[in-house]
Write a structure and sequence with these properties.
By secondary structure, this protein is of the alpha/beta class. It is built from 9 helices and 12 strands. The strands form 2 sheets. It has a 7-stranded parallel β-sheet with strand order 8-7-6-9-10-11-12, covered by helices on one side. The chain has a 5-stranded parallel β-sheet with strand order 2-1-3-4-5.
């Protein structure tokens, strides 16, 4: 069986395939989708950190593809008409990036309550600051997207004695949350939230789920934290709320346009923490992604059911 593998993970995959003795011939694809070898009957493709144009080129080069695995949890941009029409199965790496993302959220929360930016500024000015701090204990953390990443966020936040509420499509219970509601009910919780964390997939249903009306329902002392996708937030509405002072601040790892343009007003707010969509990065990320893929590759070779199959209609 022929397998196409993204260049960034090719060495690790080749090593694991050899160790396991899997009957797989590997062809490496660069970020632009150009192949290092001849593609003849490739049935599977491991996409990792590849451009949209490169992804499209791989699909066009491999007409016999039956399965694609992506190194990301989000699949926006991958659910093309070509993919659907050809009946290709798509699996993702849901949960693989949950630990560093959850740690980033706790970092943001602590920066907020312990006034980290103010302390750094005071130190740069050699100024003895008289800043007073807050604490996380007793505060309400509302996580829109109580899945794998949401559960890891809640597990860590529980150590700070926070009240943990989650939102998912069904309202099913999720470990570490005190309460989980269906997405049809979640807006009633907004007035009681001290921090709103976005950790949901980006789909047509979640596009601009954080709009002016949503922001108006949050208390003025609340903070918005986004580790999902930029498209969940109506950025002009967010800027308006920050300018008006009806939202205390935001910690943002993702934006509608990336890189965030230098002209964006978001750069100008002292109460906005900006991170370049790297909350999921870690020296261990590649190993975890490869482990996830190899486990599925073994299932694929054996003809077993794959894990993390994406519902292409729902978008995750």
């Amino acid at each position: 069986m022929q397998l196409i593998v993204a260049q960034v993970v090719a060495d690790a995959v080749q090593q694991r395939v050899a160790e396991l003795g899997l009957p797989v011939e590997i062809v490496v694809a660069g970020d632009d989708g150009q192949m290092t070898g001849e593609v003849h009957d490739a049935a599977a493709y491991f996409r990792a950190f590849m451009s949209g144009a490169g992804y499209a080129r791989v699909l066009a080069t491999a007409p016999q593809l039956r399965w694609i695995h992506t190194a990301s949890a989000g699949v926006d941009g991958l659910l093309t008409d070509d993919l659907r029409q050809r009946g290709i199965t798509l699996t993702n790496s849901a949960g693989v990036h949950a630990i560093p993302i959850a740690e980033w959220v706790l970092h943001a929360l602590l920066m907020i309550v312990k006034r980290g930016r103010e302390l750094i500024a005071a130190q740069a000015e050699q100024r003895w600051s008289d800043e007073s701090f807050d604490e996380l204990g007793g505060k309400t953390l509302l996580v829109y997207g109580a899945g794998g990443i949401g559960a890891e966020i809640a597990r860590r936040a529980a150590a700070f004695d926070m009240q943990l509420w989650g939102v998912n499509r069904s309202g099913r219970a999720v470990p570490h949350f005190d309460r989980v509601v269906r997405d049809a009910e979640w807006r009633s919780l907004l007035p009681q939230a001290d921090y709103l964390v976005l950790a949901a997939p980006y789909t047509p249903a979640t596009h601009h789920v954080i709009a002016a009306e949503t922001l108006r329902q949050l208390p003025a002392h609340a903070w918005l934290i986004n580790v999902a996708r930029g498209g969940l937030v109506d950025e002009p509405a967010l800027i308006e709320a920050l300018t008006a002072g009806t939202l205390a601040g935001a910690a943002l790892d993702t934006f509608e346009q990336e890189p965030l343009p230098r002209t964006s007003t978001l750069w100008m707010f002292p109460n906005v923490l900006i991170s370049p969509h790297r909350s999921g990065s870690s020296p261990r990320s590649n190993d975890r992604v490869v482990d996830c893929f190899i486990a599925n590759l073994q299932r694929f070779v054996a003809g077993d059911e794959l894990h993390n199959i994406v519902d292409q209609e729902a978008g995750y």
